Amino acid sequence: MKPNLLLTKTSLALILILSxxxxxxxxxxxxxxxxxxxxxxxxxxxxxxxxxxxxKSQTITKKEQLGTDKNWFAYTLDLVIMEKDSNREIKTxxxxxxxxxxxxxxxxxxxxxxxxxxxxxKSIRQNGQLAREKERGEFEKxxxxxxxxxxxxxxxxxxxxxxxxxxIFSDPLCVYCIKNVPMxxxxxxxxxxIALYYFNYPLDSIHPTSQTVIKAIEAxxxxxxxxxxxxxxxxxxxxxxxxxxxxxxxISLDSVNTILGTKFTLSDLNKKxxxxxxxxxIKIATESKIEGxxxxxxxxxxxxxxxxxxxxLKK
Length: 315
Fold this sequence. Notes:
Elements: H1 12-18, H2 26-32, H3 36-47, E1 53-66, E2 69-83, E3 89-98, E4 103-104, H4 118-142, E5 155-158, E6 164-170, H5 175-188, E7 194-200, H6 210-221, H7 228-235, H8 249-260, H9 272-287, E8 295-298, H10 305-314
Parallel strand pairs: 6-7
Antiparallel strand pairs: 1-2, 2-3, 3-4, 5-7, 6-8
Helix pairs in contact: 6-8, 6-9
């Protein structure tokens, strides 16, 4: 990971182009450019302390004096970051302010109460959101989940031979999943004309123990325990511990053991077949560009999937 220190070794001509500083201030600007690298290095450390994403690159696109103060500079950066959960690459502007000794990410005008760069960010976010929604819409129009993924080991309700197949991507610690998934499982389990297939999608950045819970559920199936997912969902793990703050895998495993009546140890979960299932589900979720849980596909399609499912359940 090597940030692009655009101004560190650039020519004086390029400095003039990228800066709003006039020629008469060139000497002072030249003296100040030696702290550009320090600014970027500090920013890199701060951004990389966030466990949710990885900084791929940062580029200075603009550097200008902050008002009439010749000591303070406003930096506009282009960041490229990678979301660790989705492996999605995001490009975004970012602002820093420094005088070579101090640094801040926010500068507010006392007269207007506006933050520097707010107008730029607002425009980019609006345009980016529209572009993202259009891109997502085009993807959902074309995407159909591969029929090969409807395997018997993923069937948790209904009839495997049914023509109507529903796929659900879920995290057993997700509050929205806890409210909806049990109802869907129980309703489809009454039917012979619908099949429900379950795909694990742990939201690790939100629920640190999600994978432990999922692996314990998968391990219980080898013991012949039925409806493991349903039992865990209905028990609601939030009744046992703080699913957002707890990082201790043993606490989550003890809770699952209580719910399912099992006696698993953490080493019992370190089985190749369990890890293979989890990684396979995550790979399928990535291929399907799953963005949240629970996500439902009706006969492999995102289009009006929930509406079609509830309509089918009424029949």
